[in-house]
What we know:
- The protein is 36% helix and 8% strand.
- The chain is α/β, with parallel strands linked by helices.
- It has a single domain (15-375), classed as Arginase, Chain A (3-Layer(aba) Sandwich).
- The longest helix is centred in the N-terminal third of the chain and has 21 residues, at 87-107.
- GO terms for molecular function: histone deacetylase activity.
Amino acid sequence: MSAYNFGPNHPMSPKRLDLTATLARELGIFDLPQVDVVEAYVASDDELAAVHTREYIDAVHRVGQDPTLSDPERGLGTEDDPVFAGIHEASARLAGGSLVAANAIISGAVPRAVNFGGGMHHAFADKGAGFCIYNDTALCIQKLLDSGVSKIVYIDIDAHHGDGTEKIFWDEPRVLTISLHESGVSLFPGTGFANDLGGPGAIGSAVNVALPAGTSDAGWLRAFHAVVPQLVEAFAPQVIVSQHGCDSHRDDELTHLNTSVDGQREAALSIAALADKVCGGRWIAMGGGGYNIVSVVPRVWSHLMAIAAGRPVPLRTAVPEAWRSYVAEKYGKVAPLLMSEDADTWWRSWEVGYNPSDALDRTVMATRKAVFPLYGLDPWFD
């Protein structure tokens, strides 16, 4: 999966996958009796065509066979998405990982699956964007729909709006997409506001919470709990699919949010609890953005895998010394000592009250007022 590599100076470094897998292994997550580690495969063109156009798939093949070519109209060969030899196979393998996850849920082999190499939520049906070539989150959801799953909730907590996945299911009433992200006023892709509600055949199927720059754990978790549980319970999905880009972290250089490893762990725990409450535990989680590749990404996604396995890693757990040595020797970096940042993840419940002078509360209320009545919910009280 590390072949998904846009070059040494690109933020989407494959090192983050290596570091995550190595940390999870050292923590013993891969050795848990309820955990199977399985290989991702290169998704076929026919599988990719479930959500992507044939013309776009052909274009990815073409630039991957001759990297001197580019196709900027399809998002290939841009600053965000430079082309490289084998780009099709590398991208299709990430997609194949999420299809493996979907098939495992469909077959009943497992109730939960994680593809931390996935989460490519900016790819559209006919073009790549934002470091994303093939949209594995959408492919996973479509696979579930094609298998007979009647309703799916997609929860995206990446700092960037999950625009590609939302657009692919814009007019699909069986899929509810919920994206909590930094406002498009201050961050790429500049979309995803409270009044973006889905197409004419699926009004209310898209939900967006556009968070003010600087939002910390307290506001981020308050926004999550003021919107997500209520809508998930009202929609009553059979499966939850979630994207866990961890670029909302305060040390991420590409965004302007202010969350912690502890806060993102708390969000993963909340999604796991929702899956248990609403859809029999059926939950598929992907990675996504995250560009602090030593101190943030490996810890957040290791926490995610442990939570999915039903064995959360306690916050005060020491980071394995073997992993810290690996980081120092291979990458010349100093790794953190604990799986926690000792952050305060307390958040103020919406029931405590709405503060119209607070920018976070205003954006939450805008979303609630736009969407909640469509589900029979009261935007002020539910």
